[in-house]
Design a protein that fits this description.
236 residues; alpha+beta; Glutathione S-transferase Yfyf (Class Pi), Chain A, domain 2
Length: 236
């Protein structure tokens, strides 16, 4: 299967969670908008289609005749096909639930720099962003990361569900990477409280396919157009 991934070409964003799964699986895929000048236009036309199953927003994945949208939904599909999810229905639903929790966290990260409106620039909402980021650093990072820290510690293995890696472990790697980029001062102190999650991050980073991806040019650097953004005023 040759997959087509549709996402914005200059940011990691939500598409990066899908890229990490495809890379770990060694899957053949085309990051359409990055490899074709007309890729963004094609993506927009697919989203605006009046028939079929058009996605509301990227990322979405084309697999044969299927077009699958929403990050967690894409990972549910890929997990079963590439051994990145448990084999039992209960296990697959549990991992999907965890990915949806990660999606909630990603949205809260986004809202630290865009607390009033997505259509406004960060510069238009600095005061509200500063207040939102302070609450996020104080309360929400510890709540989310503490939850996953507890799951890893009690899993009986090196990964969230035990001995076998799933797409949730890949996503948690990206969460740690993103939080370190966006809030380096806070994370430098806080990460001592989540040793299991940091160790999981390091184990994922060392996996051969992931390590090769991180060292290559397919990994888009973090920047101030993505979900994880570093503004000094939000990391005090």
């Amino acid at each position: 299967m040759r997959y087509e991934l549709y996402y914005w070409p200059t940011i990691q964003g939500r598409g990066e969670f899908v890229r990490l799964a495809l890379e770990e699986a060694g899957a053949t895929y085309v990051d359409v908008a990055r490899q074709s000048k007309s890729g963004v236009s094609t993506m927009m036309k697919m989203m605006q289609a009046k028939t079929g199953t058009p996605s509301f927003a990227p990322p979405f994945l084309k697999a044969g005749s299927l077009v699958i949208g929403q990050t967690a939904n894409i990972l549910l599909f890929l997990g079963s096909r590439h051994g990145l999810a448990p084999k039992t229905e209960a296990g697959r639903l549990w991992v999907h639930e965890l990915q949806l929790t990660i999606a909630d966290l990603v949205q809260e990260v986004h809202d630290t720099h865009h607390p009033i409106g997505t259509s406004l620039y960060y510069e238009d909402q600095k005061s509200a962003a500063k207040q939102r980021a302070a609450e996020f650093r104080k309360e929400r990072i510890s709540k989310y990361c503490g939850y996953f820290e507890r799951l890893i510690a009690g899993s009986g293995g090196p990964f969230v569900t035990g001995r076998k890696l799933t797409y949730v472990d890949l996503s948690l790697f990206q969460i740690v990477e993103g939080l370190r980029y966006a809030f380096p001062n806070h994370m430098k102190k806080f990460q001592r409280k989540i040793p299991e999650l940091i160790a999981l991050h390091d184990r994922v980073a060392a996996r051969p396919n992931v390590a090769a991806y991180l060292a290559g040019d397919r990994r888009i650097p973090f920047n101030e157009d993505g979900i994880f953004r570093h503004y000094k005023a939000l990391d005090k």
